[in-house]
Amino acid sequence: MKSLILITMAMILGGCSYLKERYAKEPEIDLAKIYLQDTTPLSTTMVFVLSVKNPNKIDLNVDELSYEIQIDDKEFAKAKTDRKTKIPAGETTLVEVPLPVNFLRAIDGVTKVLAGQDVGYQVLGEAKVSGFKIPFKEKGQFNMNGLKKNAE
Length: 152
Known about the structure:
Blueprint: H1 2-23, E1 28-37, E2 43-53, E3 60-71, E4 74-81, E5 85-87, E6 92-102, H2 103-114, E7 119-129, E8 132-142, H3 144-151
Antiparallel strand pairs: 1-2, 2-6, 3-4, 3-5, 3-7, 7-8
């Protein structure tokens, strides 16, 4: 009996894996544009407009998005949006992601970037998509000199 339960569980988990691979493909995301809003002498909100392509056979419903950006292990910006967005199956939708920036918090990172020094960054958060919470985390180094070389 115990082995039958284990076999059944393995089949269920294997089936879930198969369904995930077949029907839950990762969306393709590209940066379409960035614009500023609500700018004051001490802060602004950068709005990242993302082009999100849903390669799945079902609609993706983004119910909530919370995220934080750290520069050299210090909080640079943090936000949460509960703007509901539907990304239809097989289609591409523009999604706006606001990022409030406090210039005083950003000064160290900006100074390093302008000086051509490496700046560590980390983006972490959680998206609530079609009822599921999906955590995300990206970490790396940023250097203005590298951008200049890539632009040439």
